[in-house]
Design goal:
single chain; alpha/beta; six-stranded mixed sheet; 4 helices; 6 strands; about 35% helix
């Protein structure tokens, strides 16, 4: 991670299991990251499942996203039974603040459409079963120098 201020693009998955994904970005490179993310993902329809995508399509997305300057990825899911969405979202946001205290939302406006798309695509990969093994060229999480994927009951890197 750089020494500059870190901001994040957030995506909330509002269907059980709930989940929150944050893509960390250097504030001073936010515009560059937005442009590169837009170029990489513009016009690509988000599939229902990363795992069910054709390997060649996964490789194309990963290759297109590699130049995006990110500072990390953080994802937490909540599969606790009988938890209301509002409660889950509050708990996930609290976990984000606890584990990424150095990061904040972009000032003035949220993340642009390119970075929001990157967060959505990354969340799709994070929701896959941990039993699924992908080649590095097909693993979107490989574009991040650091990432954390876990649940409210645990956090694993």
């Amino acid at each position: 991670m750089t020494g500059s201020e870190i901001v994040y693009a957030l995506v909330w998955h509002g269907e059980p299991p709930y989940g929150l994904t944050a893509v960390g970005l250097a504030a001073d490179r936010l515009e560059e990251a937005e442009t590169l993310a837009s170029d990489a993902l513009d016009g690509r329809a988000l599939p229902d499942s990363w795992e069910e995508m054709e390997p060649q399509s996964r490789r194309c997305v990963v290759r297109a996203c590699r130049p995006i300057p990110t500072e990390g990825l953080w994802h937490v899911s909540d599969d606790r039974p009988d938890v209301a969405e509002e409660h889950s979202r509050r708990d996930c946001l609290a976990r984000l603040r606890d584990e990424w205290p150095h990061a904040s939302p972009p000032a003035g406006r949220g993340a642009g459409p390119g970075l929001t798309a990157l967060a959505r695509w990354s969340a799709l990969v994070c929701r896959m079963s941990p039993d699924v093994l992908l080649d590095v060229e097909e693993d979107l999480l490989d574009i991040y120098d650091t990432y954390t994927v876990g649940g409210l009951a645990d956090t694993a890197s």
